[in-house]
Model the fold of this input.
Amino acid sequence: MTDPDHHERDDHERDDDKRDEEERDGGEFGESGPFGGFGGFGASGDEKKPDEQDTPYVSGRPRIPVPRASVEDTGLPLPAVPPAPPQLEHQVLKSLLGAWALAACSAEETAAVEDHLGGCGSCADEARRLREAVGLLQRPDSLDLDPGLRTRVLESCLDRRPPRVPVPDWAAAYDAETARLDALLQDFGDAEWHTPVRLRWFDGSRPAGRRTTVAGVIAHLLAVDGLIALALGLDDPLGGTDAGPPTPTARTEAYWRACHVPPTRTVRAPWREQSHGIVRTVSFTGGGEGGLGVPYGDHELPLRDAMTDRAFECWVHAEDIAEAVDYPYEPPSARHLHRMVDLAARLLPGTLADRRRAGLASPARAPRRLVPAGTPGRTLRLEIEGSGGGEWLIPLDSPAALGSADHEVAHVALDGVEFCRLAAGRVSPDEAAAGQLGDREAIRDVLLAAASLSRM
Done:
């Protein structure tokens, strides 16, 4: 007879043996786990074998990854920690608001102030008001000096102490314009001195031009200013070079030919020395009060007009240079600009007569006879607006005739700077923004005559 307790013990022993065997085989579901992967959820069948794992394998247990390496163990520098703003008292920070609004604080003070503004409402309001006030104080003006500043400073100084040897009023424009051009040139490097510049003028009936460099322009001014130097008894910058007729173009070409290499920055010193010598000489001697004749080849100008002519050309070529190097350049002061406009207006009747003799202008009309010298004839009113403005009556039929408002047949209005650029050949007669009234033919003749005043 079998013992029931003995059978029950045997069953329990068989169950224990079965469980031990399953544990050795990887559990109830084997090594693949319940979801077909090695102890994981959805792992693929190409999972690494236990002996291929990067980490120690424990049979029947999930893989445990090793800890990631710390940045301290890599040998790389630790990221920089931004310094904390300095701890300043409230009154100190409040006193810095004005400097902060002007962007005059150091980096540490700026950080401290801006950190404080985030938590202090009264200081934030004060900082906003100060920033708005700074915006009203700062005007978006050019950093270049006012062209009239030098004149005002000199006049102020001379009011306090008159000069022992004053510069004549008719030479002041030349003195100012050469000084302005020299100030433009003083910071030029070698590259700027060799920057291409195109000289432009109006050759009777069409625009003309010549290419050179910044140094070539200064050589041109040196050669042509030499006409005045010679008239005053100073040294000729051309030396013994044969320039042919004493015209601006001939002298410039002769100087350029005499240079074995293209002019360089070394031309600045003799040009500036010559301009100083001219101003000094006319100041000491007076130049016959400006009546001394200066030959220009086919015509002659009184010294006072020649000095204005050279001041005008110095300004025009300074603008050419400034345009070539992409730098702003202001027109002359109103007093000097007016003198330049006046010279051009006084030269118009003679230039108009020269063009008429050359067949480039319409003949004189009714009355079809010569106007006696000193008597009024057909007249054009030239009105110059803006800086250096005024009105001039231009006789149309004869240089010796008188301009008369009673005989006015046309009226032209031009801006002062625009008129000077027309007379310099920088603006064509067709492009000149002119208000016109009256005889269109007379107006066109006068505008063409103004452009014909230009030369290289």
In short: Strands lie at 196-203, 206-213, 293-295, 300-302, 379-385, 390-395, 408-415, 435-438. The domain at 336-452 is CATH 3.30.1050 (Nonspecific Lipid-transfer Protein; Chain A). The CA atoms of residues 362 and 441 lie 8 Å apart.
